[in-house]
Amino acid sequence: MHSILQRGNAILAYTLSVLACLTFVCFASTVLLNYRTHADLNTVKVVVYVVLWDKIILRGENAVLDFKNMNTKYYFWDDGNGLKGNNNITLTLSWNIIPNAGLLPNIFAHGSHSFQFPVDYTTSRM
Description:
By secondary structure, the protein is of the alpha+beta class. The protein folds into 2 domains: 1-32; 34-126, no CATH class. Helix content is 21%, strand content 13%. It has one helix spanning 4-30, and strands spanning 51-52, 74-75, 89-91, 94-96, 106-108, 113-115. The chain has a two-stranded antiparallel ribbon with strand order 1-2. A two-stranded antiparallel ribbon has the order 3-6. Strands 4-5 form a two-stranded antiparallel sheet. The longest helix is centred in the first third of the chain and has 27 residues, at 4-30. The chain is elongated. The N and C termini lie far apart (78 Å). This is Microsomal signal peptidase 23 kd subunit spc22/23.
């Protein structure tokens, strides 16, 4: 006969094997999905005081991003003269989808927006 420890070990090993198979099925069901979409990007007022932002969108929330009057979260400082007067600045949109199991993909949207920075830095807070 088997002891309690041997039976518990067999049940635990079987349970972990079933969970590993279910995790792999969850990964396999989403790994080949195409999450790319088209994004319309635009700039209204360009100042050399660039702001980087992020937003967490939960499943079921409205995914339309409209940041016309958003307060700043991260500042992107130009330590030299690389941004001032630059004629080729391109904005792109990318995001991560956090899966239940598997890879953490970095997805880039179709579409971008190019513009130029002004030749003077901003001297006051916006």
